[in-house]
Amino acid sequence: MKTLIIYATRYGTTGTCAQLLSDALEGEVVLQNLAENPTIDLAGFETVVVGSPVYAGRINKRVKRFCSNHESTLLAKRLGLFTCDMEEGDGSIKQLDHCYAPPLVAHALVKNSFGGQFLFSQMGWFTKKMIKMMSKSDEDVKRIQYDAIKEFADVLNS
Ligand SMILES: Cc1cc2nc3c(=O)[nH]c(=O)nc-3n(C[C@H](O)[C@H](O)[C@H](O)COP(=O)(O)O)c2cc1C
Fold it and tell me: Per-residue pLDDT tens for 74-118?
């Protein structure tokens, strides 16, 4: 079984999660960062996983475009959808459901948030200032949901 994980990332967390998912999946897995390689070839992949960080309530533009340009092909694949974000509890799933197109959400074999991170060393000064004010802390926040990644992989491996 061959799996393609398509993703985008701004500060690296979604890439880290995509790699963790890849490590937990059985069979051949190809990781594709859309910013590094925008060429799409979905042929030969039985399973496609799409992952994106959420900024201001939206997924990455490249991921959105990929999903819309390839929707009919994705609807014929085993599909997984994930987000990286800092929402907590049910809010993160509601956000995911709102971010991806309804037909893809309905078709997905598995979907979940893998949590997220605020890594201050990676941010520009304005973003750093804004997030520090919002989170009332200048410590990095690391909330990757390792269990969610494992459970997601278990569904795709079954
Ligand atoms: C400017 C900014 C806006 C954000 N907006 C949201 C948001 O609307 N919802 C959310 O759940 N998380 C939000 N986040 C948190 C990011 O989704 C989180 O940091 C994620 O891990 C980033 O992933 P990346 O490193 O792959 O880009 C925001 C973070 C920043 C810095």
Answer: 999 999 999 999 999 899 999 999 999 999 999 999 999 999 999
Tokens of 35: 């910013």
11 ligand 1 Cβ < 6 A: yes
Q: How far is the CA of 139 from the centre of ligand 1 (A)?
A: 16
Strand partners, 59: 54
Asked whether 117 lines ligand 1 (CB < 6 A), one says: yes
CATH number of 2-157: 3.40.50.360
Q: Is 116 in the pocket of ligand 1 (CB under 6 A)?
A: yes
**Max CA distance (Å), the chain:** 47
Please give the number of the atom of ligand 1 that sits closest to the Cα of 17.
26
Domain boundaries, the chain: 2-157
Q: Report yes or no: 110 and 139 within 8 Å, Cβ to Cβ.
A: no
